[in-house]
Design brief:
The complex is a heterotrimer of chains A (about 300), B (about 280) and C (about 425). Chain A is built from 15 helices and 2 strands. With about 300 residues, chain A is mainly alpha-helical. The relative contact order of chain A is 0.11. Chain B contains 14 helices and no strands. The longest helix of chain B has about 30 residues. The radius of gyration of chain B is 24 Å and the shape is globular. The two termini of chain B are about 25 Å apart. Classes of the chains: A mainly alpha (about 300), B mainly alpha (about 280), C alpha/beta (about 425).
Chain lengths: ~300, ~280, ~425
């Protein structure tokens, strides 16, 4: 194919001695053109079929009343206006915000702390790291199912809490404790991811920095604050951007553990989207999806800008 | 920096307790899967099942179609991994080493899709699958195609592999070209072997996300014939009157393969994870 | 209708079945036999059936006999549970992967029918069920429940209404008489409840308190209240009668004699076996579940008419057999429905799942109405029949599923003490009014 391309270019290319460098440039420029297109074709086709076309359809449907049985009917901004005034949706937004704040407040901190712990050259460090990381390997459905059993009124959590004289309650039936319970299960599953990432990043910090800090008389906490944390800056940004995006899409655990209840206290944005999908309100479901996308894009953008500037 | 003895002991204690909190629930899942119904919430709790029974596993394979769920998960996951290895590497090579008009623009088009959350595509993808199903019973809703196709490429994978392939020296490729090799041959004989570590990492993470995928399989499968393990398990766990022994057996079957894969390929997992993140 | 109309209708039905038979035969190996005027098209066909009854289903045992009589119809039987069907049915129908027949909770019917998901059954039935008019085989209330905007959209298979299940052995032991009104019920609960672990709170032999619309509505109706106004245009359950009903129900929790049975509580059977629950209200189908799951409690329980304040009342629901609007094999599905609704098969509803058959002939069958050894030899149908007669079904509005959710949320909020009953019901009513607009 390369030869064919070369022959084509020679047909119209300048001839004579001056032709050689131009020829070389052209050949290099279009090196493997045909093959290039063929090789990216599957990926581009898949992207068009499963990413771009759906994105466009979703945008269109968000402005329609569509139940999947009859053709969509244009309603303009009605879906968005209804959502803005819908107490169920607003509650879902509130719950999702609480989830993101708490999960992303606690998770990375636990990850950081456990990484700092393991960074102390403990023996069996690999084993501990594996222990923290295994839940990350399991599906959120698995995690939700296990925790649903643990949080049952007669489950292990209440047994242990009772033994420790801590309050016991019906964790998933009580609107005050249901969302925190879902958050706890989610943090349990996820913080090992941060542990691994922070640990690797910590180990990349040069020893000299620590030694210099010790020479300056810094204690363990001081070293952590002035050497470790700054060294982890980029990693922390990365962890938060990814983390917030993922946390905002919380659904699997809610689907299994609480189905959005009790009294909508664990209903999340994606859960409400699926509810509307199931009740054949596809226009509203699409509008919810786009609101989510816009908010996520905005939040990521703000995060990156804010942290980049401080650099 | 070695701390004093008591401090180190404390650190070990914290590490052990916290590890126990992480592993404990998984052990409890395993233990419960062998308990008869009456013992699930026995008081005081039975840390070792006694008596123990295989009835729960028998149930999930006879009364419930977990055997089918397992087969579906295996077929779908392996297919997704295979397709991704093929298409992602091909595209990554083209974006990394080949030059053609519009290359960077096309790559940019792929990258921006990373910004869009999956839920935006969910419903249209479903409707597209519904339409495809009218074209052929092997396409669309409730088929393997429907489960596999949307995950056929991972843009993030293409992105990472492209970085990886870029580091392959041009001379090797050029000399192959001079010898008359086509780009496809180069891809097969040179790039694939050299990029193998990167491809292996892609394969592992694609396996992970495909095995544990929940939302799309939940939506696109309509019958137990086609459901995958996470979906089958979730529907089991949502019941009003739950048989916990059976449910835990199902949970073990869903979780164990992934944990096993992880334990065997731990090093590659961690390497793959951390090399991308610390940029 | 007169004979001419009947023949025209059945001729049309046969023509339809002939046409659908032709379509079905496109994949079959044998050519389509012409639709005969006396019988059905016998092209081999497979129908998919969704059933949420669970292990005590009356549908599955009937399939063997069905296959014998109609060997060309193969039934692809899918046992799903109530929750799965309620989330999956709409999407399945709208995406063209609908089953041919499904068991549906009667309270879902208005929403599904108004979205156009259910087939008008007169298309396949011509108004006839097993040779006699549908009209003659059900009670007025049953026919009402099966109708949406003048069409039959479902065939009532079992009826559900609530009565009081109570531990008769404990009542006798403690000398408690069976309550007939609300204050007696509260008093009985106080006499029953026991504190066995010495923490000052009763933890055994409690009244189960369920935070859902089924239970609350029953008390609402008993107190003379209603959910919506007669025009179905606004919520009226936050009337004084409604608030009283909710306050009464919450009263058990305030007295310390009730146990809030939310989703985290798990299995009621476990609660019955452990003695935590000694009184609860539920429908006839639960009799079958108790016999399966709590065999060692045989003889200890009995059933009584739900104690009421002003008049006997209960929610009325049940299960209907419906055919999705775009089902592929509607006629074969109707054949199955007719088979299941033959009186002797319909009796299976009672004998297998313990529920109350919707079909009048089945309900009155001596096989159903007999003393039940599990309940100490009581003829429980003497309780269920009058309860059904005085039960009220939910309003038939498109938005019912959302209204149900709002009411259930309000009831939960009040029972958990998050809002006062008046506040909770007022907030729920505002939400419901918003949906009805």
């Amino acid at each position: 194919m390369v030869k064919a391309a070369a022959r084509e270019t020679t047909a119209t290319a300048p001839r004579g001695p001056a032709a050689a460098p131009v020829m070389r440039r052209l050949r290099r420029r279009f090196r493997g053109s045909g093959s290039g297109y063929v090789l990216v074709l599957p990926a581009m086709l898949a992207a068009i079929a499963f990413l771009y076309v759906p994105m466009a359809l979703s945008a269109y449907w968000s402005f329609t009343d569509f139940n999947g049985l009859l053709p969509p009917r244009w309603v303009g901004l009605a879906n968005y206006r209804e959502l803005a005034a819908d107490p169920l949706f607003l509650q879902a937004v509130r719950n999702t915000a609480v989830f993101v704040l708490l999960a992303q407040g606690i998770g990375p901190v636990l990850g950081l702390a456990s990484a700092a712990l393991l960074n102390n050259k403990l023996r069996f460090r690999g084993l501990f790291r594996t222990a923290y990381f295994i839940p990350v390997m399991t599906s959120l459905v698995v995690v939700a199912t296990i925790w649903k059993m643990l949080l049952n009124s007669n489950g292990l959590v209440n047994v242990i809490f009772g033994y420790l004289h801590l309050p016991t309650t019906s964790w998933l039936s009580n609107p005050s404790t249901a969302l925190p319970s879902v958050i706890a299960a989610s943090v349990w599953q996820g913080f090992g991811f941060e542990t691994v990432i922070f640990l690797a990043a910590m180990q990349a910090i040069p020893r000299e920095y620590y030694e210099a800090a010790m020479v300056d008389g810094a204690n363990a906490w001081g070293r952590f604050r002035h050497v470790t944390l700054p060294g982890l800056r980029r990693t922390i940004i990365f962890v938060y951007v990814i983390g917030i995006i993922q946390a905002s899409q919380v659904f699997d655990q809610v689907f299994v553990m609480t189905q959005g209840g009790p009294i909508e206290s664990t209903n999340t944005v994606v859960n409400e989207l699926i509810n509307r999908f199931n009740s054949l309100q596809l226009g509203q479901a699409s509008a919810i999806a786009y609101l989510l996308a816009v908010v996520l894009a905005f939040v990521s953008f703000v995060q990156i800008r804010v942290f980049e500037r401080r650099d | 920096m070695r701390q004093r003895r008591p401090v180190r002991l404390l650190l070990y204690a914290i590490a052990i307790v916290t590890s126990a909190i992480m592993i404990g629930p998984l052990y409890w899942m395993l233990a419960t899967s062998f308990k008869p119904p009456g013992d699930v919430f026995a008081s005081p709790p039975k840390w070792i099942p006694d008596p123990w029974t295989l009835a729960n596993y028998h149930d999930v394979f006879t009364l419930l179609p977990f055997g089918r769920f397992f087969i579906n998960s295996v077929i779908v996951t392996l297919s997704i991994v295979a397709v991704n290895i093929l298409f992602d590497t091909a595209a990554a090579y083209a974006f990394a080493k080949l030059r053609f008009p519009g290359r960077d623009f096309l790559f940019f088009l792929l990258l921006i899709t990373l910004m869009v959350p999956f839920q935006v595509n969910l419903i249209p993808l479903f409707r597209i699958m519904v339409a495809l199903h009218h074209v052929s019973p092997y396409l669309g809703v409730n088929t393997y195609f429907g489960l596999i196709a949307p995950s056929a490429i991972q843009v993030f994978g293409i992105f990472l592999l492209r970085q990886y392939i870029r580091s392959i020296p041009d001379e090797i490729l050029d000399s192959a070209r001079v010898d008359g090799a086509s780009e496809f041959k180069i891809l097969r004989k040179i790039v694939f072997p050299l990029a193998l570590p990167g491809i292996a990492t892609l394969a592992i993470f694609t396996f992970l996300s495909a095995w544990n995928d929940f939302l799309w399989p939940l939506i696109v499968t309509q019958t137990d014939q086609m459901r995958t393990l996470p979906v089958g398990l979730a529907l089991l766990a949502r019941k009003q009157e739950i048989n916990w022994g059976d449910t835990m057996a199902g949970t073990v079957i869903t979780a164990l393969p992934m944990i096993a894969v992880f334990l065997v390929l731990q090093r590659r997992f961690i390497e793959g994870l951390t090399s991308g993140a610390i940029r | 209708m007169d004979r001419r109309q009947f023949l025209r209708r059945s001729g049309a039905a046969l023509a339809v079945s002939g046409a659908s038979g032709l379509l079905a035969a496109c994949g079959a190996s044998s050519p389509t036999p012409a639709a005969s005027s006396s019988g059905q098209n016998r092209t081999p066909v497979t129908i998919t059936v969704w059933d949420y009854y669970g292990s005590s289903t009356p549908v599955k045992p009937a399939l063997a006999g069905f296959k014998n009589r109609y060997p060309w119809i193969t039934v692809n039987y899918q046992g799903l549970d109530w929750d799965t069907i309620s989330t999956k049915f709409t999407v399945a129908v709208s995406s063209g992967s609908a089953p041919d027949m499904a068991t549906l909770d009667m309270t879902w019917i208005p929403t599904y029918a108004s979205t156009g998901l259910l087939m008008d059954l007169s298309k396949v039935s011509g108004g006839m069920l097993n040779g006699k008019p549908i009209r003659q085989q059900y009670s007025g209330g049953g026919l009402n429940a099966m109708t949406y905007q003048g069409h039959y959209v479902t065939m009532l298979f079992d009826e559900d209404c609530y009565a009081l299940y109570y531990r008769r052995d404990l009542f006798e032991k403690k000398g408690i008489s069976v309550p007939t009104n609300w204050s007696e019920m509260r008093a009985a609960a106080k006499a029953l409840a026991q504190d066995t672990n010495g923490d000052g709170k009763a933890d055994k032999y409690l009244m189960e308190i369920d935070p859902d619309t089924f239970h609350y509505a029953s008390y609402l109706f008993q107190n003379g209240g209603a959910i919506l106004d007669p025009a179905n245009s606004k919520a009226v359950f936050n009337s004084p009668q409604g608030v009283q009903a909710l306050e009464m129900y919450k009263g058990f929790l305030d007295d310390g004699t009730g146990i809030y049975w939310g989703p985290g509580q798990g299995d009621r059977i476990a609660g019955l076996n452990s003695g935590t629950v000694a009184m609860f209200e539920d429908g006839p189908y639960y009799m079958g579940i108790m016999k399966d799951g709590a065999p060692n409690l045989a003889g200890k329980w009995a059933i009584a008419t739900a104690p009421y304040s002003r008049k006997p009342g209960s929610y009325l629901g049940g299960t209907g057999l419906s055919i999705p609007a775009n089902a592929a094999h509607a006629d074969a599905a109707w054949t199955l429905i007719q088979y299941l609704l033959e009186p002797r098969n319909s009796v299976g509803v009672a004998t297998y799942s313990g529920a109350a058959p919707g079909l009048s002939a089945a309900l009155q069958s001596p096989r159903v109405q007999k003393p039940d050894p599990y309940f100490g030899g009581q003829d429980t149908w003497k309780v269920w029949l009058p309860t059904m007669a005085s039960a009220t079904h939910y309003p038939y509005v498109r938005q019912w599923n959302n209204i149900d959710r709002a009411i259930a949320d309000g009831v939960s909020a009040a029972l958990l003490g998050k809002k006062t009953p008046q506040q909770a019901l007022d907030d729920a009513a505002a939400q419901v009014d918003g949906r009805l607009r």
